[in-house]
Amino acid sequence: MKTTLVAAAISVLGSHAYADGHNFASAPHVGQMRDWSGAYAALGISYSMGSYTTTAGSAYNAPDAEGVGLSAILGYAMQDGGFVYGAELMGNMDRTDGSGADCGLGAGFTCRSSIRNYLAARVRVAYAFNDTLLFATLGYATDKQDHTIRNGGVKVGVNAQRHYGPTVGLGVAHALNDELSIRGDVEYYDFGDRTYNLTVPGATTIDTNTVSARISLMRRF
């Protein structure tokens, strides 16, 4: 008898709660958007490829360069709902090289192209899908490059120049927990042209660009 009365009471209370809009049994769970805001730092490994175009009239054909490097990123992000935006600094420490024979100069010649690190300051805009962040970067970068030419093993031309130019990138980050995330970037650098004073073949203007892929472990503070 008591069991019947208790069941009836629960049924009545439940009916009133549902009528008042308090359907506790079926109330949805509202999850919170992951917080991507604040300062962050990342360490990563990159793979970079530099390609070169010499001015018309120069016989020199600079070999493309490629190599692996270590990178560090420091940044700060702000968040408004799913939108995340901020700025960051990226430094890539590597020794990206390329070498070849002839190089448009004839038999016996060998040449080498090198990239000695690059640095970028950029803004980042993103949209968060809770644990996953899709983003784009836009900024300005600089690097140090050099070209060396040898004839029969004897150095006949060497010059280093600093290049400057815009950079754009796309990437994705995925949160592992509240502090750590894994991040991947693909970046393009247009470092423009500089004139290299090489004994052979003489003053040569070289236009250069670099494509880089990077994977990093990022920590939010």
Short key terms for the protein model shown above:
mainly beta; Outer membrane beta-barrel protein; OMP-like; Porin; eight-stranded antiparallel barrel; membrane
Q: Can you describe what's shown?
A:
With 221 residues, this protein is mainly beta. The chain has one domain: Porin. Helices cover 8% and strands 69% of the residues. An eight-stranded antiparallel β-barrel has the order 1-2-3-5-6-7-8-9. The chain is elongated, with a radius of gyration of 29 Å.
**Strand content range:** over 45%
- The end-to-end distance, rounded to whole angstroms, is 61 Å
- CATH fold call: Porin
Q: Which strand order spans the largest sheet, edge to edge or round the barrel?
A: 1-2-3-5-6-7-8-9
Name of the CATH first level: Mainly Beta
Shape field:
elongated
Please summarize the sheet with the most strands: 8 strands, antiparallel, barrel
Strands, total number: 9
Low-confidence stretches: 1-10, 12-30
Based on the structure given, which CATH architecture is correct?
Beta Barrel
Instruction: Please write the string of helix (H) and strand (E) elements.
Output: HEEEEEEEEE
Helix/strand class: mainly beta
Radius of gyration: 29 Å
Number of helices: 1
Number of domains: 1
Average of per-residue pLDDT values: 86
Helix content: under 10%
